[in-house]
């Protein structure tokens, strides 16, 4: 059997290793340059590869093609494979065939990384044999090849879910759905919504779907579509017959029995969205028979994701916060919503068709100045120039931080929460966040 892997990043190289282990003839093809780290792994594993081109003669000999999530379906080579009826799948589809472990799959427009980290943290604290992967950390396929985990906690992007056939997590979580990546979905929000819900399409009556009952996009989809899995909603606003909700500021779980998990004041992560992430994680751990005390302790000592509302330093009474992972408007909404002091907001980058009007009430209430950090900022300036007195355009993290330092006064916060992708000025949102932190440390 010939396995062709398109894209030699984390998921591609992981799938190649697993494929070789399972007896496939593996060939890896990357249209770009393969990074040193991954090239070394391919050479060490004696896996043939090419870079800078896609040799169609080799690719079209495949019995199955594993496509990296970054490659859109509309590129010519993928279209040709589909026409030739050669199956094109994602790494999670390929790897899931080879594990007997329980899969917890977590998707959503925002909060999926934090929820994945939370679930992993709780299960590790309960001494369960757990591996974390997918869109975060080590590739799922490589973990299946090299470890024997009882539970896999996977962060799943819509792109990964687009390439599934039989993949079915035992526990699926949808944190929320807001417009994102619409450039990959013909600018149709419903295509993106359907893509997220693929996480549950192969689930059975013995599986579970945990979701935000306060999210209209999710609840409307569920009204109009049949789901086999047991539905376990979570909500900040309403008491539920089954699921997780707030009662007297306590997180309460109702499933088979009724349990108070903990008060929200003791949660390590603050903000309404983090209460929801904690609810989803607590429900998951409960289904996996983790003790209540362990869940509570884990939610109290969890340290959070890097680049997600990460406190950097306090300088002259001004708190600097790195929220570089906020690559869409909804993520920035959460960030601004959680600010308790006057805020100098650093925003901008590659706009994915953003509508900034959703942020207007929060900007009016909390933002004293805006610092633009992007090549093209006209949309941000246009939206907010009547609301915020001071808007400054900058061309890099260092300049943005220096300007913020001049503007901010004691008791203020400086928040990097870009609401945009980072590729105009940075390699990635991590690079953007690291440059911001470095600039703050050098003040």
From TrEMBL:
Look up keyword Secreted and say if it applies.
no
Pfam families, sorted: Mur_ligase_C, Mur_ligase_M, MurD_N
Which residues belong to any copy of the Mur ligase central domain? Answer: 106-284
Q: Which keywords accompany this UniProt record?
A: ATP-binding, Cell cycle, Cell division, Cell shape, Cell wall biogenesis/degradation, Cytoplasm, Ligase, Nucleotide-binding, Peptidoglycan synthesis
What Enzyme Commission number(s) appear in the record? 6.3.2.9
Q: Which residues form the Mur ligase C-terminal domain?
A: 307-420
- Catalytic activity from the UniProt record: UDP-N-acetyl-alpha-D-muramoyl-L-alanine + D-glutamate + ATP = UDP-N-acetyl-alpha-D-muramoyl-L-alanyl-D-glutamate + ADP + phosphate + H(+)
Q: Can you cite an annotated GO cellular component?
A: cytoplasm
SUPFAM superfamilies, A to Z: MurCD N-terminal domain, MurD-like peptide ligases, catalytic domain, MurD-like peptide ligases, peptide-binding domain
Q: Name one GO molecular function term.
A: ATP binding
Where is this gene product found?
Answer: Cytoplasm
Report the pathway entry: Cell wall biogenesis; peptidoglycan biosynthesis
Main location per UniProt? cytoplasm
Report the record's Gene Ontology biological process terms. cell division; cell wall organization; peptidoglycan biosynthetic process; regulation of cell shape
UniProt-annotated binding residues for ATP? 108-114
Query: What's this protein's function?
Result: Cell wall formation. Catalyzes the addition of glutamate to the nucleotide precursor UDP-N-acetylmuramoyl-L-alanine (UMA).
List, alphabetically, the NCBIfam families matched: murD (TIGR01087)
Similarity comment: family membership: Belongs to the MurCDEF family.
PANTHER family in the record: UDP-N-ACETYLMURAMOYLALANINE--D-GLUTAMATE LIGASE
State the protein's name: UDP-N-acetylmuramoylalanine--D-glutamate ligase
